[in-house]
Amino acid sequence: MPRWILVAIVSLLSGFAAVFIAALAVGELLSGAAPTAVSTLSVDFPVEPVRIPVHENSRDENASVRGWLARGPRGGGLVLLVHSIRSNRVEMLSRARFLNDHGYGVLLIDLQAHGETPGERITFGVRESENVQAAVAYLRNAFPGERIGAIGVSLGAAAIVLAKTPLRLDAVVLESLHPTIEEAVENRLKLHLGQAGTALAPLLLWQLSFRLGIPDHELNPIEQIANLNAPVLLISGSVDQHTRMVETERLFAAARQPKELWIVPGGGHFNMHAYAGKEYERRVTAFLDWYLRERNLTP
Protein backbone atom coordinates (compact mmCIF):
# COMPACT_ATOMS: atom_id res chain seq x y z
CA MET A 1 0.00 0.00 0.00
CA PRO A 2 1.45 3.40 -0.96
CA ARG A 3 2.61 5.44 2.00
CA TRP A 4 0.35 8.39 1.19
CA ILE A 5 -2.75 6.16 1.32
CA LEU A 6 -1.69 4.80 4.71
CA VAL A 7 -1.12 8.34 5.99
CA ALA A 8 -4.56 9.38 4.69
CA ILE A 9 -6.26 6.42 6.41
CA VAL A 10 -4.47 7.10 9.70
CA SER A 11 -5.36 10.78 9.47
CA LEU A 12 -8.99 9.95 8.74
CA LEU A 13 -9.21 7.51 11.66
CA SER A 14 -7.51 10.03 13.94
CA GLY A 15 -10.06 12.62 12.89
CA PHE A 16 -12.95 10.27 13.66
CA ALA A 17 -11.39 9.45 17.03
CA ALA A 18 -10.96 13.13 17.85
CA VAL A 19 -14.60 13.84 16.97
CA PHE A 20 -15.77 10.90 19.07
CA ILE A 21 -13.69 11.98 22.06
CA ALA A 22 -14.95 15.55 21.71
CA ALA A 23 -18.55 14.30 21.63
CA LEU A 24 -17.93 12.24 24.77
CA ALA A 25 -16.44 15.27 26.50
CA VAL A 26 -19.41 17.45 25.56
CA GLY A 27 -21.81 14.73 26.67
CA GLU A 28 -20.06 14.54 30.04
CA LEU A 29 -20.25 18.30 30.36
CA LEU A 30 -23.97 18.30 29.57
CA SER A 31 -25.02 15.34 31.70
CA GLY A 32 -22.45 15.35 34.50
CA ALA A 33 -23.76 16.21 37.96
CA ALA A 34 -23.49 19.83 39.17
CA PRO A 35 -23.43 19.61 42.98
CA THR A 36 -22.95 22.84 44.92
CA ALA A 37 -23.28 23.85 48.54
CA VAL A 38 -26.15 26.30 48.96
CA SER A 39 -25.64 29.02 51.55
CA THR A 40 -28.40 30.21 53.85
CA LEU A 41 -30.39 33.29 53.02
CA SER A 42 -30.15 36.68 54.65
CA VAL A 43 -32.51 37.47 57.52
CA ASP A 44 -34.72 39.72 55.37
CA PHE A 45 -36.09 36.63 53.61
CA PRO A 46 -36.37 33.88 56.21
CA VAL A 47 -36.95 30.36 54.94
CA GLU A 48 -37.31 26.86 56.33
CA PRO A 49 -34.94 24.21 54.96
CA VAL A 50 -36.90 21.19 53.74
CA ARG A 51 -36.03 17.66 52.64
CA ILE A 52 -38.72 16.00 50.56
CA PRO A 53 -38.64 12.22 49.95
CA VAL A 54 -38.71 11.44 46.24
CA HIS A 55 -40.55 8.23 47.04
CA GLU A 56 -43.40 8.32 49.53
CA ASN A 57 -42.42 7.33 53.09
CA SER A 58 -38.78 6.85 52.06
CA ARG A 59 -36.20 7.60 54.77
CA ASP A 60 -33.23 7.43 52.41
CA GLU A 61 -31.41 10.75 52.70
CA ASN A 62 -29.89 10.17 49.28
CA ALA A 63 -33.36 10.06 47.72
CA SER A 64 -34.66 13.37 49.02
CA VAL A 65 -35.06 16.77 47.38
CA ARG A 66 -33.44 19.70 49.17
CA GLY A 67 -35.20 23.04 49.19
CA TRP A 68 -36.33 26.18 50.95
CA LEU A 69 -39.87 27.01 51.98
CA ALA A 70 -41.14 30.54 52.64
CA ARG A 71 -44.70 30.61 53.90
CA GLY A 72 -47.35 33.11 52.82
CA PRO A 73 -50.74 34.12 54.23
CA ARG A 74 -53.26 31.31 54.51
CA GLY A 75 -55.40 31.10 51.38
CA GLY A 76 -52.94 33.13 49.31
CA GLY A 77 -51.67 30.23 47.24
CA LEU A 78 -48.23 28.68 46.76
CA VAL A 79 -45.72 28.61 43.91
CA LEU A 80 -43.09 25.94 43.25
CA LEU A 81 -39.90 27.38 41.69
CA VAL A 82 -37.69 25.11 39.56
CA HIS A 83 -34.28 26.25 38.29
CA SER A 84 -32.41 25.79 34.99
CA ILE A 85 -29.64 23.35 34.04
CA ARG A 86 -26.36 23.34 36.00
CA SER A 87 -27.82 25.79 38.51
CA ASN A 88 -29.63 25.47 41.85
CA ARG A 89 -32.44 27.00 43.89
CA VAL A 90 -30.51 30.26 44.40
CA GLU A 91 -31.28 31.13 40.75
CA MET A 92 -34.96 31.44 41.68
CA LEU A 93 -34.46 33.77 44.65
CA SER A 94 -35.47 36.97 42.89
CA ARG A 95 -38.74 35.36 41.81
CA ALA A 96 -39.29 33.98 45.30
CA ARG A 97 -38.87 37.41 46.86
CA PHE A 98 -41.39 39.25 44.70
CA LEU A 99 -43.90 36.41 44.84
CA ASN A 100 -43.62 36.20 48.63
CA ASP A 101 -44.00 39.98 48.87
CA HIS A 102 -47.15 39.56 46.76
CA GLY A 103 -48.55 37.13 49.32
CA TYR A 104 -47.61 33.74 47.86
CA GLY A 105 -45.90 30.98 49.74
CA VAL A 106 -42.92 29.70 47.75
CA LEU A 107 -40.95 26.46 47.59
CA LEU A 108 -37.53 26.54 45.89
CA ILE A 109 -35.95 23.15 45.17
CA ASP A 110 -32.67 21.77 43.87
CA LEU A 111 -33.28 19.25 41.10
CA GLN A 112 -31.46 15.91 41.26
CA ALA A 113 -27.73 16.16 40.50
CA HIS A 114 -27.90 19.91 41.19
CA GLY A 115 -27.21 21.97 44.28
CA GLU A 116 -27.62 19.82 47.37
CA THR A 117 -30.00 17.21 45.92
CA PRO A 118 -28.09 13.96 45.21
CA GLY A 119 -27.90 12.49 41.72
CA GLU A 120 -25.35 11.01 39.34
CA ARG A 121 -26.52 12.45 36.00
CA ILE A 122 -28.54 15.34 34.62
CA THR A 123 -31.33 13.72 32.59
CA PHE A 124 -32.86 16.78 30.87
CA GLY A 125 -36.13 16.57 32.74
CA VAL A 126 -36.90 12.86 32.92
CA ARG A 127 -35.64 11.97 36.40
CA GLU A 128 -35.89 15.60 37.48
CA SER A 129 -39.64 15.29 36.93
CA GLU A 130 -39.74 12.93 39.93
CA ASN A 131 -38.42 15.79 42.07
CA VAL A 132 -41.19 18.04 40.82
CA GLN A 133 -43.82 15.39 41.50
CA ALA A 134 -42.47 14.92 45.04
CA ALA A 135 -42.45 18.69 45.66
CA VAL A 136 -46.04 19.11 44.46
CA ALA A 137 -47.16 16.17 46.63
CA TYR A 138 -45.37 17.73 49.61
CA LEU A 139 -47.18 21.04 49.11
CA ARG A 140 -50.53 19.30 48.68
CA ASN A 141 -50.05 17.39 51.94
CA ALA A 142 -48.62 20.29 53.94
CA PHE A 143 -51.09 22.91 52.69
CA PRO A 144 -54.42 21.20 52.00
CA GLY A 145 -56.94 23.41 50.23
CA GLU A 146 -54.35 25.84 48.84
CA ARG A 147 -54.08 26.40 45.10
CA ILE A 148 -50.61 25.69 43.76
CA GLY A 149 -48.70 27.00 40.76
CA ALA A 150 -45.22 26.34 39.40
CA ILE A 151 -42.57 28.28 37.49
CA GLY A 152 -39.91 26.28 35.66
CA VAL A 153 -36.94 27.64 33.73
CA SER A 154 -35.35 25.62 30.88
CA LEU A 155 -34.51 22.29 32.59
CA GLY A 156 -37.01 23.15 35.32
CA ALA A 157 -39.71 23.70 32.72
CA ALA A 158 -38.87 20.36 31.07
CA ALA A 159 -39.07 18.63 34.46
CA ILE A 160 -42.62 19.95 34.90
CA VAL A 161 -43.75 18.93 31.41
CA LEU A 162 -42.13 15.48 31.41
CA ALA A 163 -43.81 14.28 34.62
CA LYS A 164 -45.10 10.77 34.01
CA THR A 165 -48.25 11.23 36.07
CA PRO A 166 -50.46 14.34 35.93
CA LEU A 167 -49.28 17.04 38.32
CA ARG A 168 -51.93 18.50 40.59
CA LEU A 169 -51.13 22.08 39.64
CA ASP A 170 -53.52 24.98 39.12
CA ALA A 171 -51.22 27.16 36.96
CA VAL A 172 -47.87 26.65 35.23
CA VAL A 173 -45.31 29.15 33.90
CA LEU A 174 -42.75 27.66 31.49
CA GLU A 175 -39.71 29.76 30.56
CA SER A 176 -37.18 29.14 27.78
CA LEU A 177 -38.37 25.59 27.16
CA HIS A 178 -37.05 23.59 24.18
CA PRO A 179 -39.54 21.45 22.18
CA THR A 180 -37.15 18.54 21.46
CA ILE A 181 -33.76 17.43 22.72
CA GLU A 182 -32.54 17.27 19.11
CA GLU A 183 -33.24 20.97 18.56
CA ALA A 184 -31.75 21.88 21.93
CA VAL A 185 -28.50 20.09 21.08
CA GLU A 186 -28.33 21.34 17.49
CA ASN A 187 -28.94 24.96 18.50
CA ARG A 188 -26.15 24.84 21.06
CA LEU A 189 -23.71 23.17 18.67
CA LYS A 190 -24.52 25.78 16.05
CA LEU A 191 -23.94 28.61 18.52
CA HIS A 192 -20.53 27.34 19.59
CA LEU A 193 -19.23 25.63 16.44
CA GLY A 194 -21.21 27.19 13.60
CA GLN A 195 -23.43 25.37 11.11
CA ALA A 196 -20.84 22.60 10.68
CA GLY A 197 -21.21 21.78 14.37
CA THR A 198 -24.66 20.31 13.79
CA ALA A 199 -22.98 17.34 12.10
CA LEU A 200 -21.96 16.23 15.60
CA ALA A 201 -25.57 16.16 16.80
CA PRO A 202 -26.39 12.49 15.98
CA LEU A 203 -23.25 11.23 17.75
CA LEU A 204 -23.84 13.49 20.74
CA LEU A 205 -27.49 12.46 21.03
CA TRP A 206 -26.59 8.78 20.75
CA GLN A 207 -24.03 8.87 23.51
CA LEU A 208 -26.29 11.00 25.74
CA SER A 209 -29.02 8.40 25.35
CA PHE A 210 -26.48 5.67 26.07
CA ARG A 211 -25.17 7.40 29.21
CA LEU A 212 -28.64 8.08 30.57
CA GLY A 213 -30.35 4.88 29.48
CA ILE A 214 -33.25 6.97 28.20
CA PRO A 215 -34.60 6.96 24.62
CA ASP A 216 -34.41 10.35 22.88
CA HIS A 217 -38.17 10.63 22.45
CA GLU A 218 -38.69 10.60 26.23
CA LEU A 219 -36.72 13.87 26.39
CA ASN A 220 -39.08 15.83 24.09
CA PRO A 221 -41.39 18.23 25.98
CA ILE A 222 -43.48 18.95 22.87
CA GLU A 223 -44.73 15.35 22.92
CA GLN A 224 -46.07 15.71 26.46
CA ILE A 225 -47.00 19.36 26.92
CA ALA A 226 -50.63 18.59 26.05
CA ASN A 227 -50.75 16.31 29.11
CA LEU A 228 -50.46 19.29 31.45
CA ASN A 229 -53.81 19.60 33.15
CA ALA A 230 -53.31 23.24 34.16
CA PRO A 231 -53.38 26.66 32.45
CA VAL A 232 -50.00 27.47 30.89
CA LEU A 233 -48.04 30.68 30.37
CA LEU A 234 -45.13 30.19 27.96
CA ILE A 235 -42.33 32.77 28.09
CA SER A 236 -39.39 33.06 25.70
CA GLY A 237 -37.02 35.72 24.40
CA SER A 238 -37.38 37.06 20.88
CA VAL A 239 -33.63 36.67 20.19
CA ASP A 240 -33.09 33.42 22.11
CA GLN A 241 -30.76 31.27 20.01
CA HIS A 242 -30.89 28.27 22.37
CA THR A 243 -34.65 27.95 21.88
CA ARG A 244 -35.77 29.91 18.82
CA MET A 245 -39.05 31.78 18.74
CA VAL A 246 -40.52 29.45 16.10
CA GLU A 247 -39.83 26.52 18.43
CA THR A 248 -41.65 28.23 21.30
CA GLU A 249 -44.59 28.89 18.99
CA ARG A 250 -44.75 25.18 18.16
CA LEU A 251 -44.81 24.35 21.86
CA PHE A 252 -47.60 26.88 22.36
CA ALA A 253 -49.61 25.34 19.54
CA ALA A 254 -49.21 21.88 21.09
CA ALA A 255 -50.35 22.96 24.58
CA ARG A 256 -53.99 22.66 25.56
CA GLN A 257 -56.20 25.61 26.48
CA PRO A 258 -56.23 27.77 28.52
CA LYS A 259 -52.79 29.05 27.52
CA GLU A 260 -50.92 32.31 27.04
CA LEU A 261 -47.72 33.22 25.20
CA TRP A 262 -45.33 36.06 25.99
CA ILE A 263 -42.38 36.62 23.66
CA VAL A 264 -40.09 39.05 25.49
CA PRO A 265 -38.72 41.66 23.04
CA GLY A 266 -34.91 41.51 22.99
CA GLY A 267 -34.83 38.63 25.46
CA GLY A 268 -32.31 35.83 25.07
CA HIS A 269 -31.80 32.53 26.87
CA PHE A 270 -31.22 33.93 30.33
CA ASN A 271 -33.05 34.98 33.49
CA MET A 272 -36.26 36.58 32.21
CA HIS A 273 -36.99 38.18 35.56
CA ALA A 274 -33.57 39.81 35.64
CA TYR A 275 -34.07 41.01 32.04
CA ALA A 276 -37.71 42.14 32.01
CA GLY A 277 -37.96 43.19 35.66
CA LYS A 278 -41.25 44.83 36.62
CA GLU A 279 -42.95 43.80 33.37
CA TYR A 280 -42.13 40.18 34.18
CA GLU A 281 -43.56 40.61 37.67
CA ARG A 282 -46.70 42.26 36.32
CA ARG A 283 -47.42 39.58 33.74
CA VAL A 284 -46.57 36.59 35.93
CA THR A 285 -48.53 37.79 38.96
CA ALA A 286 -51.53 38.65 36.75
CA PHE A 287 -51.49 35.10 35.36
CA LEU A 288 -50.99 33.43 38.74
CA ASP A 289 -53.49 35.67 40.52
CA TRP A 290 -56.23 34.78 38.04
CA TYR A 291 -55.82 31.03 38.39
CA LEU A 292 -54.73 30.83 42.04
CA ARG A 293 -56.89 33.60 43.49
CA GLU A 294 -59.39 35.74 41.56
CA ARG A 295 -60.81 32.88 39.51
CA ASN A 296 -61.90 31.22 42.75
CA LEU A 297 -64.08 34.25 43.49
CA THR A 298 -65.76 34.33 40.08
CA PRO A 299 -69.37 33.06 40.29
Explain what you see.
By secondary structure, the protein is α/β, with parallel strands linked by helices. The chain folds into two domains: 1-31 and 181-214, no CATH class; 37-179 and 220-297, Rossmann fold, CATH 3.40.50.1820. 40% of the residues lie in helices and 17% in strands. The chain is built from nine helices and ten strands. Strands 2-3-5-4-7-8-9-10 form an eight-stranded mixed β-sheet, with helices on both faces. The radius of gyration is 21 Å and the shape is globular.
The neighbouring-strand order within the major sheet is 2-3-5-4-7-8-9-10
CATH topology of the largest domain: Rossmann fold
Radius of gyration: 21 Å
Helix fraction bin: 40-55%
Q: In the CATH hierarchy, what is the architecture of the largest domain at level 2? A: 3-Layer(aba) Sandwich
Based on secondary structure, the structural category is alpha/beta
Low-confidence stretches are 12-21
Biggest sheet features: 8 strands, mixed
CATH class of the largest domain: Alpha Beta
Overall geometry: globular
Proportion of residues in β-strands: 15-25%
Cα(first) to Cα(last) distance is 87 Å
Number of DSSP-assigned strands = 10
- Give the mean pLDDT: 86
- Write the element-wise H/E pattern from the N-terminal end onward: HEEEEHEEHEHEHHEHEHH
Question: CATH homologous superfamily of the largest domain - what is it?
Answer: Alpha/Beta hydrolase fold, catalytic domain
